[in-house]
DNA sequence: CTGAAAGCGCTTACAG
DNA sequence: CTGAAAGCGCTTACAG
């Protein structure tokens, strides 16, 4: 078996309390004692047992991140930001992927992270009031990212405002008939992105005195093939839109695919704007709304670590800005038609 | 504070050992006793303390995954496969991202996961003999994914064979001058992919009696912009290649960008083949080698869990197959030129 | 500055 | 089938 604190103490000729003090960098140790202990630790390759330490300190030195759809680029970027911050701390990162509503419910009912982590980072998953209560009862610091809860610090982006910017951009290019393609408005996991972005879409139209046309709204699924299908449906309309705003880049890629299939030149015959600014958006020349995804992760992790280290736990709302990135998919030469 | 096993025992009118037996599903408990204990557990919302359990059982119920470059699609896909398998087990997944050689060295020297995890999944990072020895000394089961170690179970794909397939495909389309764009052949972290794929490239040329032309080899960095630059360099050659094999899709995207900038039609004027079959490859019409990335993750996790649960720990090598996916970037109409 | 002792919350022989 | 007791490897008052 591995060496224990007793082995070190015996070999260094001190008590285990002294070894513990050296380990925990207590100032109350004579320099020569410390040196002797450190030498033995080094010699033996001793490493303190985490479980024992946890048991007595009631600290795990781990934080958990709970996120849906691990493979979607958005979440990956957020994860990357989180990881970067956590890696520079003393904490370890435990990951929980929640893909289905059942899984989600099970998680927040059993709180499997309880007692295994000192804090929680919840990405994009809205929490129901009883779930929030349960978290707080467990006294587990939590930070929400890309979603918010009344009593918890939350890091969000302005989805309504971003969508507004996107649609206003199309209007400024002369478009009057603008379709909106999105995922479900009331999805299983309770996301509000699609709804928020639609609100921005509607607000922009209204602000510019354009009519809201129900047939231009295509809410379906958060999948590229839905973007494809929705675009075909829009094109089949008696009066098809001259521009399409997709609630995320992935949908936009599906839209673009469909338009090309129909022989339309994106950015010339019809304009497309996405949302996310995935890496691929640049390659495709997609005008889109850039979200600071990695920065959301960083910010969330920083807020959590601050709460953990300094005990600051005010339920602040951090809203990160979004920007319109203009590319060729919405170039203006067509629009004045 | 949270309830402890003592609270449950007292309230149920039994000893703590009996509560423990119920918790651990020992058969030696009278059904009515069990029922009473379970009722109290439920009533109190009691949850056993992990640290205490770990301390006495010396099991953490966690496994760690160590991977580089968390955001690269390849690793994400592997991670996804791992997560899917681990989520269905009793284990939790701790993630360590290792991006720099210094970080890498530090990790394998300090083994920060030691005592925090029951097993290790190492993705793509080759281990030096002393590092392997250290792992084995720590008696920590480990499985290698996309890299191999002599004494450890390893899940790999046939990179040499995949590259061979890719180049042979180009040759079959009539190409004789085939460039090769890759990342560093001897990268800091010790990856061997680029080298392996180049070996496949060379083997295919040799097998078909084509000359190896040093000026067609462009080894630089694993970044899209290098693909871009390398392509420009190849085009500037007195006798530029008629086809380019890129060691991964991301490089291929850079290559394609450059070709388009130069006014070349990919798949007509010049052929391009990538490696990885990223989601984006389909959108771009890139012919490429498909790797079962998620499956590699699954397989690795399964092997590790088997080792953990059943104690099977034979150092088996699992080689997963790769396939050529033909798309428009290498369509044959040009090649007979 | 340092050591002996108590205690963290469990599991597991050992008796019965 | 069940309970009292020992022990896992630490940290932390408490004395000195």
From TrEMBL, chains A, B:
Which Pfam families does the entry mention?
LacI (PF00356), Peripla_BP_3 (PF13377)
Gene that encodes the chain: ccpA_1
Q: Could you tell me the superkingdom of the organism this chain comes from? A: Bacteria
Coiled-coil intervals: none
CDD domains reported in the protein's UniProt record: HTH_LacI, PBP1_LacI_sugar_binding-like
Which Gene3D superfamilies does this chain map to?
Answer: 3.40.50.2300, lambda repressor-like DNA-binding domains (1.10.260.40)
Record's protein name: Catabolite control protein A
* Record key words, sorted: DNA-binding, Transcription, Transcription regulation
User: What range(s) does the HTH lacI-type domain occupy?
Assistant: 3-57
**Keyword Transcription regulation in record:** yes
SMART domains according to UniProt:
HTH_LACI
């Amino acid at each position: 078996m591995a060496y224990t604190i007793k082995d070190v103490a015996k070999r260094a000729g001190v008590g285990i309390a002294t070894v513990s003090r050296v380990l925990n960098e207590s100032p109350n140790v004579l320099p020569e004692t410390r040196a002797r202990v450190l030498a033995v630790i080094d010699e033996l390759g001793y490493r303190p047992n985490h479980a024992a330490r946890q048991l007595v300190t009631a600290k795990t030195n781990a934080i958990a991140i709970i996120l849906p759809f691990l493979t979607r680029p958005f979440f990956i970027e957020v994860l990357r930001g989180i990881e970067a911050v956590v890696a520079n701390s003393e904490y370890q990162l435990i990951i929980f992927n929640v893909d289905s509503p059942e899984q989600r419910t099970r998680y927040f009912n059993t709180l499997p992270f309880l007692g295994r982590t000192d804090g929680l980072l919840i990405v994009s998953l809205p929490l129901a009031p009883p779930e929030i209560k349960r978290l707080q009862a467990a006294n587990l610091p939590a930070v929400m990212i890309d979603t918010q809860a009344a009593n918890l610090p939350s890091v969000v982006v302005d989805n309504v405002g971003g969508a507004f910017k996107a649609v206003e951009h199309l209007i400024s290019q002369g478009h009057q008939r603008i379709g909106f393609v999105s995922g479900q408005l009331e999805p299983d996991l309770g996301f509000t992105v699609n709804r928020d972005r639609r609100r921005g879409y509607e607000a922009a139209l209204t602000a510019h005195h354009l009519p809201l046309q129900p047939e231009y709204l295509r809410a379906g699924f958060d999948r590229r093939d839905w973007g494809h299908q929705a675009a075909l449906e829009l094109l089949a309309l008696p009066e098809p839109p001259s521009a399409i705003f997709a609630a995320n880049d992935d949908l936009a890629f599906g839209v673009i695919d469909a338009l090309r299939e129909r022989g339309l030149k994106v950015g010339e015959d019809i304009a497309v704007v996405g949302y996310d600014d995935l890496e691929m958006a640049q390659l495709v020349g997609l005008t889109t709304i850039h979200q600071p995804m990695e920065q959301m992760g960083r910010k969330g992790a920083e807020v959590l670590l601050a709460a953990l280290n300094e005990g600051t736990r005010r339920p602040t709302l951090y809203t990160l800005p979004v920007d319109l990135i203009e590319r060729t998919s919405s170039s203006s030469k067509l629009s004045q038609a």
